[in-house]
Design brief:
Strand content: 15-25%
Largest sheet: 8 strands, parallel
Helix content: 10-25%
Radius of gyration: 26 Å
CATH architecture of the largest domain: Alpha-Beta Barrel
Distance between the termini: 34 Å
Number of strands: 33
């Protein structure tokens, strides 16, 4: 535990300001008087300390090599005697010190701001603060505040590393193409149209069961959703929901409904349309004629191919060339790793239908075919006429040389080369990696991914806090204080511009539906939407989550979209649209600072601030089943007494009194208080 805050004047009780040793703020008690006494008394008041890399505290979150970085630290007024920045510079492998100087007070008079500048250079740097009050010292870094100097969890400075602004500022909509909308019945897969791996295709009626009539053949079930259908529903995506980024599960030629067993990376599957259909969808998404300019992200399945791919050709489907399974003399034999040709080979999780690609050494044929060459898969779809805006990398940590399972030197080399290839075509293209844990090894260096699928830092903790279940549907409940600590700890894993480009989703095609975990309680979806649209990262809506779609584990999580429910009049869809509009209206909700304001385990209440130079916003969430009055300590956001705050959902105005705002929040709902 850290040291305790000093008692303040009047009726104020002692501030509880202990911090978890390496994580985050505990709940702040109610403050009933705005005056706060602080003095040089050999005691650093932790409760007044704040820094993150929001625009008020870091003048260059994405600096060039020529830009010095000026950092701001907040303390209670008159509390400390000195402060220093201690930073590690990768250029010389040494630590350096920068003395900070007092700069200003905040509008309330409660806080001092101290500033210091780290000189410009091209090297990567990592920093923490040393804060002194006479003989007492506290340390602050991204992981939290401690009395002893931390050895990890520092803030990042990565000159020259940027993540796409459109991803940081956008809202993404994920679509499993076969299940969204059937726009062209002429390309539907019919019953028994073909047989793959012993399963004949099954055409199911829209809205019917996703389970195959033949046991073990669920991947052979088709409903008719396609790219033309997505194109026809762009008005719903852009205007009714408000999303401007579309992420599609795989669309390339494949015998399965999920398309993760690619047969040809250069051809759109005919069940979804054609290459021309994808070109049209991309152009219509980019257009502003049907709503705001949009962006298109495709799923890149580059760890493995399908066993029907012409490079492998297990079933002799291709003519005019010889695949690796057919002959050891095949020109693509080295694309795979055989332990005993032809039937024993490295495959994704042992699935023989998904043989792993062997990326070999830098410059290998596989690397050139996937991303290195100008005619490679990655570069082709980024270029005109398709002009997609980014790649989501499936099973990204497993890409490797020699049939291994990745997460090694070769994997990171491959990812760095892939980034260079992507950015050479479009510097603003996004690279979104799939990793279910701490994706820091791929993002913290500024040379691989722009962001990751945020299972660890969003999906799992949100599910456990709101639904009492993990994303697999198993019982797992956490109190709000643990929820807040989890969020703080996972944010600390990433540079700020990566945090802002992380994909924050409630459900995906790989886990049970949030609506299912919530037991069908639409109010829990409401609460989750409040958090999703006001938290750090890119809100990502898995089609149907905006109305609380049900669904258990795969394949049940891939049900068809219910167009009788997915309408502007649906309460959850309408709330989604309103929350997206609020997020779009306030940059503070996208790239502003994040500050914990309150956690209350007993009443299941959570409040936090998002703020920048233009706006201060307090979000109050109630995870209980009954209404609670939440007293939010907005003095921590420098909201002044007598100032007006507007609750953005209801339009109700509040006045700050004694540094606080009290607002009644319905069970499983939220309030967004802005000034």
């Amino acid at each position: 535990m850290g040291n305790q805050g000093k008692a303040t004047h009047g009726s104020v009780s002692t501030l509880a300001c202990a911090l978890a040793a390496a994580l985050t703020l505990y709940a702040l008690p109610a403050i009933h008087d705005q005056a706060r006494a602080a003095s040089n008394d050999n005691n650093v008041e932790w409760n007044g300390l704040f820094h993150d890399q929001g625009p008020l505290y870091d003048n260059h979150v994405e600096p060039t090599a020529a830009q010095a970085v000026t950092l701001t630290l907040r303390t209670f007024k008159g509390d400390i005697s000195s402060a220093n920045i201690k930073y590690y510079d990768s250029a010389d492998g040494a630590f350096h010190w920068v003395a900070m100087s007092w700069s200003a007070n905040d509008a309330t008079g409660n806080f001092d701001f101290w500033k210091g500048t780290i000189p410009a250079s091209a090297s990567k740097k990592y920093y923490r603060f040393q804060i002194n009050d006479g003989s007492a010292t506290a340390w602050l870094n991204a992981a939290g505040t401690t009395s002893a100097e931390p050895s990890s969890g520092d803030f990042f400075i990565l000159p020259g590393f940027t993540t796409p602004a459109w991803m940081k500022n956008g809202v993404m909509y994920q679509i499993f193409p076969d299940r969204f909308y059937n726009g062209d019945a002429g390309n539907d897969v019919g019953n028994g149209q073909y047989t793959y791996a012993g399963c004949a295709t099954e055409k199911h009626a829209w809205g019917s069961s996703v389970v195959a009539n033949v046991s073990g053949c669920n991947t052979a079930v088709f409903f008719g959703g396609d790219l033309a259908g997505i194109d026809q529903k762009l008005g719903y995506i852009k205007n009714t929901v408000g999303a401007d980024i579309v992420y599609l599960n795989p669309v390339f030629l494949s015998p399965s409904n999920h398309k993760y067993d690619t047969e040809d990376y250069m051809t759109v599957d005919p069940a979804f349309g054609s290459n021309a259909t994808l070109q049209t969808l991309s152009a219509d998404l980019h257009s502003t004629a049907n709503g705001p300019k949009g962006y298109l992200v495709l799923d890149g399945v580059f760890n493995h191919t399908g066993d029907t791919h012409k490079w492998f050709d297990r079933y002799n489907w291709w003519t005019g060339l010889t695949g690796a399974y057919e002959s050891q003399s095949s020109p693509t034999y080295g694309y795979y790793t055989f332990q005993s040709w032809p039937n024993t080979y490295s495959a994704f999780f042992g699935f023989s239908s998904m043989p792993k690609l062997d990326y070999g050494a830098s410059g290998s044929a596989v690397r050139n075919a996937i991303y290195g060459g100008t005619g490679s898969v990655v570069q082709t779809w980024l270029k005109s006429p398709y002009s997609i805006d980014g790649w989501r990398l499936d099973a990204a940590q497993y890409l490797d040389a020699g049939g291994g399972n990745g997460s090694d030197t070769a994997n990171h080399q491959i990812m760095a080369e892939l980034r260079s290839a992507v950015k050479s075509v479009n510097a603003n293209a996004d690279i979104l990696g799939e990793f279910w844990g701490n994706a820091g090894p791929w993002t913290a260096g500024g040379d691989q991914w722009d962001g990751a699928m945020n299972y660890d830092g969003f999906t799992q903790p949100v599910s456990e806090w709101i639904t009492g279940r993990d994303y697999g549907g198993n019982a797992a409940s956490i109190p709000v204080s643990q929820f807040d600590s989890w969020l703080h700890g996972t944010r600390a894993n990433y540079p700020t511009n990566v945090q802002q480009a992380m994909s924050n989703f409630l459900s995906s095609h790989d886990i049970s539906r949030f609506g299912n975990r919530a037991g069908g309680d639409i109010w829990k979806t409401y609460l989750a939407l409040f958090f999703q649209m006001t938290y750090v990262g890119t809100p990502t809506i898995y089609y149907g989550d905006e109305y609380g779609m049900q669904g258990g584990a795969d394949p049940d999580n891939r049900r068809t979209f219910d167009w009788s429910v997915g309408t502007a009049t649906n309460s959850a869809v309408a709330l989604t649209k309103k929350l997206v509009a609020i997020r779009n209206a306030y940059p503070a909700l996208r790239t502003g600072s994040f500050m914990t304001l309150l956690t209350n385990d007993t009443s299941k209440l959570y409040a936090y601030g998002r703020f920048d130079a233009s706006n201060r916003i307090a979000v109050a969430l109630n995870n209980d089943s009954v209404t609670h009055t939440v007293t939010v300590p907005v003095w921590q956001l420098s909201m002044t007494n007598g100032s007006t705050v507007t609750e953005l959902i209801s339009g109700t105005h509040y006045t700050v009194q004694n540094g606080q705002i009290s607002v009644a929040v319905n069970g499983h709902y939220g309030a967004i208080l802005a000034q």
